[in-house]
Amino acid sequence: MKSMTCRQLGGACDKIFQGNTFEEVAELSKQHGMEMFQTKDEAHLKIIYELQELMEQPGEMEKWLESKRQAFEDLPTD
User: CA 34, CA 66: separation in Å to the nearest integer?
Assistant: First the structure.
């Protein structure tokens, strides 16, 4: 199992997500992002809007996602 924070995943806080795969951690992060969107957390909303802009640029979201996947792979196991 590995751990990453919201901030390590490009987010705005130090909430910790744990999983055996990047996909597990990414899903937990996505759920957290949706919760922060619903509560209108300003710091997280800023990041969400930045990611939405990134998605509009062909290939950029894939590069961003791959960099986060590589960061997960480089982490030691908990």
Answer: 21
